[in-house]
C-alpha cells in the first residue's frame, strides 16, 4: 500500500510539473510575439477571422467611465478547457492596460450548472471571489473533488474560512438569483455556444475554437481591446 501511495503521489506531482512547463512555455511564446502581456504591439497582430461579431453589441455592465474597455470571461467551473485557459487569462489580466475592466459571467447552459454560477456570485458578494475562483478550479480539476451541490460547495467554502450560515444566506438570496439569471440571458444574447469564451466590449466573441487555441485567443483579445480603445479615443477627440 505504501508503494502504491508513493507511486500515485509521484504521478500527481509529475502531472503538475508538466502543466507548469506547458504554461511557462506558452507565456514565453506569447511574450516573444508581443514583447509583453500589455498589448503594446497588439496592432501588429491581425485578429481578422479569429472572432465573431456580436450584433447588437451588449455590455455586461454599463460603466460611468466611457473610456473603459470591458472584457468578460464566460466560464464554467466543470469545464476542463476553462481550467486550462484560466492561468493564461489571469496572467494577461495581471498586466492588462489600466483602461481594461475584466468581469466574469458564469455560463448556465443547463440546470446542473446553476450551483456553480451561484457559488461564483456568492463569493463575489462576500468579497472572496478573487481567492475562491482559482481554488474551485483547482479543487475540481487537480484534486478531482465533487463540488456540484449547494451543500458540497458550502463545505468547501467553509474549509476556506467562509461562515456556513453566511454562505447559505447569500447563496439563496434574491440578489444571487437575479445575477445568475442575468448571466444565463447574457450568454444567449452574446451567442456563446461553449466555454471558455471571452466577450470584448460587448462587441466581439473570442474562444479557442475561433482563435485557433488558447494562446492565440489571448493575442486576439489584446488586438480587439486595442481596437476598441482606439475607437473610444477617436470618438473622444471628435467630441461624440
What does this protein look like?
This protein has 240 residues and is α+β, with helices and mostly antiparallel strands. Helix content is 57%, strand content 10%. It contains nine helices and five strands. It has a five-stranded mixed sheet, sandwiched between helices. The chain is globular and about 55 Å long. The relative contact order is 0.18.
Which SSEs are present, and which pair or pack?
Elements: H1 2-34, E1 52-53, E2 69-75, H2 80-94, E3 100-106, H3 114-125, H4 129-141, H5 150-159, H6 164-171, H7 174-190, E4 197-200, E5 204-207, H8 208-211, H9 214-238
Parallel strand pairs: 2-3
Antiparallel strand pairs: 1-5, 2-4, 4-5
Helix pairs in contact: 1-9, 3-4, 3-7, 5-6
What labels would you give this structure?
240 residues, alpha+beta, five-stranded mixed beta sheet, 9 helices, 10% strand, disordered N terminus
In short:
This protein has helices spanning 2-34, 80-94, 114-125, 129-141, 150-159, 164-171, 174-190, 208-211, 214-238; strands spanning 52-53, 69-75, 100-106, 197-200, 204-207.
Amino acid at each position: 500500500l505504501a508503494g502504491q501511495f508513493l507511486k500515485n503521489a509521484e504521478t500527481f506531482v509529475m502531472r503538475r510539473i508538466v502543466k507548469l512547463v506547458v504554461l511557462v512555455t506558452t507565456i514565453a511564446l506569447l511574450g516573444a510575439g508581443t514583447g509583453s502581456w500589455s498589448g503594446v504591439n497588439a496592432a501588429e497582430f491581425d485578429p481578422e477571422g479569429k472572432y465573431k461579431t456580436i450584433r447588437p453589441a451588449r455590455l455586461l455592465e454599463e460603466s460611468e467611465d466611457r473610456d473603459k474597455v470591458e472584457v468578460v470571461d464566460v466560464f464554467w467551473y466543470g469545464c476542463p478547457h476553462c481550467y486550462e485557459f484560466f492561468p493564461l487569462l489571469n496572467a494577461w489580466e495581471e498586466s492588462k492596460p489600466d483602461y481594461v475592466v475584466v468581469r466574469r459571467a458564469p455560463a448556465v447552459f443547463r440546470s446542473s450548472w446553476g450551483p456553480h454560477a451561484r457559488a461564483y456570485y456568492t463569493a463575489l458578494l462576500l468579497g472572496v471571489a478573487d481567492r475562491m475562483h482559482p481554488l474551485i478550479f483547482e479543487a475540481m480539476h487537480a484534486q478531482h473533488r465533487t463540488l456540484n451541490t449547494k451543500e458540497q460547495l458550502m463545505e468547501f467554502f467553509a474549509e476556506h474560512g467562509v461562515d456556513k450560515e453566511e454562505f447559505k444566506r447569500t447563496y439563496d438570496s434574491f440578489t444571487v438569483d437575479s445575477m445568475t439569471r442575468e448571466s444565463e440571458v447574457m450568454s444567449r444574447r452574446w451567442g456563446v455556444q461553449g466555454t471558455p469564451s471571452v466577450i470584448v466590449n460587448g462587441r466581439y466573441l473570442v474562444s479557442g475554437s475561433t482563435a485557433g487555441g488558447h494562446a492565440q485567443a489571448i493575442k486576439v483579445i489584446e488586438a480587439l481591446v486595442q481596437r476598441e480603445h482606439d475607437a473610444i479615443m477617436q470618438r473622444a477627440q471628435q467630441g461624440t
